[in-house]
Amino acid sequence: MPAAADVLKPDFAARRKHFIFNDEHEQLRDSIHAFVVKELAPHAEEWEETTFPDWVFRRMGELGFLGLSMPEQYGGQGGDYFCNLVLGEEMGHSKSGGLAMGIAVHTDMATPPILAFGTEEQKQRYLVPSIKGEKISSLGITEPDAGSDVAGIKTRAVRDGDEWVINGSKTYITNGHRSDFIVLVTKTDVDAGYDGFTLFLVDMDLPGVIREKKLEKLGMHSSDTALLAFQDVRVPADAVLGEIGKGFYHIMWELQGERLIGAAGSVAGAQRVFDQTLRYATERTAFGRPIGKFQVIRHKFAEMATKIESARQMVYTTAWRFHNGEYPVREISMAKLHASRIAVEVADECIQIHGGAGYMKEYGVERAWRDLRLNRIGAGTDEIMLDVIGRSYGL
Ligand SMILES: Cc1cc2nc3c(=O)[nH]c(=O)nc-3n(C[C@H](O)[C@H](O)[C@H](O)COP(=O)(O)OP(=O)(O)OC[C@H]3O[C@@H](n4cnc5c(N)ncnc54)[C@H](O)[C@@H]3O)c2cc1C
Question: Which residues does ligand 1 sit against, CB inside 6 Å?
């Protein structure tokens, strides 16, 4: 308790947002932030046109940012899960949602299953160079005829002696054009229900792997998004990742980490556009005063800040449980749903506060809205999150 003589003042600028972070996390945050602002953000406009270059992976590998929570024996930093959250948050300062997504697919979607389910040989061959940024990964779940309904995929892998032969197609694959390998979800037994799926590590330069044209998108322009075809692609028996027949469960596990990092990215994206808009509202004047001094605008900021804070606390608390070995699927789904929704609401309101400027590319607020809009679809749509949450109550 403070002494009666002490005057307590509200600590609006408190730096640490949650007990999950310690001083090391904050130092890591500072170093990632400095790198992102200095080496990535200046290229944001250019990369919207060209997609971001592959050197970003190598550079981030050199800096140790691609394996923050990976074991040191594979070249990682040996940190905890919260380090990945820090990376996911700080990448938002690149002002390039597509770049943040391309990196997150590599660090938090395609490579964790190799660590969790891979053989030692697979870890040496794929994980070690991925952490160095020498190999780029992608993750292939979605198909032209099956997205939300993962169990409805048609890509088949059939055993042929010592090999497997893969046929099918995948769509909307992030990093699909640049990746050296893909973690591919296939069906290996059509009669086995959820026990009929198997993951493969497929080198993208194998005969029969066809990278179709780059797909044009609403946002995330700096990322590459591919339609891929697999025509009689032969892979060796040791290309199986994890257990034969357990691929569905493996990928459901992967999706939990993907959703949580996506949620963290949504909160960070919302915070960044909020901060930018706050500056604008203090500089822009109308009717003789800064627009932020109108009560209507002030309340918009209050609403947005409350939404961001509620989503942030959901993400952090759920991440804490995930870090402690729990499998909080319901709360991960809630965090993903809530964070991606409020991020779009915040970005939309920020466009409004900017007025006409919000509609102009120059300010980047419209791009934040377009980029953040993906999060209500990717890694499981809002409707699928609601269904997971609803079903978790036995309904
Ligand atoms: C830019 C981008 C990048 C992506 N990157 C990747 C990637 O790297 N790898 C990858 O595998 N995938 C990727 N995806 C795919 C993404 O995960 C899917 O688009 C998403 O899961 C939705 O699947 P769908 O597009 O087939 O929609 P559909 O499943 O066809 O859904 C259409 C609509 O129906 C609704 N719906 C479907 N089923 C139900 C239900 N049971 N109850 C209520 N509503 C339902 C959906 O919510 C949605 O509104 C990416 C997508 C985009 C746009």
Answer: 105, 139-142, 147-148, 172-174, 217, 220, 225, 374, 377-381, 383-384, 387
Residue closest via CA to ligand 1's atom 45 equals 383
Contacts (Cβ under 8 Å, ≥6 apart) of 31: 63
Q: How many CB atoms lie within 10 A of CB 375?
A: 25
Which of 381, 389, 395 for a ligand 1 pocket mutation test, highest count of atoms within 8 Å of Cβ? Answer: 381
SS3 content of the chain, % helix, strand, coil (to 5): 55, 15, 30
Give the C-alpha separation, 85 to 366, whole Å.
25
Q: How confident is the model at residue 6, as a pLDDT?
A: 79
SS3 133: coil
Q: Which atom of ligand 1 is nearest to the CA of 380?
A: 21
The DSSP output letter for 216 is P
Element (H, E) at 241: strand 240-241
Whole-number mean pLDDT of the chain? Answer: 96
Q: Over the stretch 149-182, which tens digit does the pLDDT of each residue have?
A: 999 999 999 999 999 999 999 999 999 999 999 9
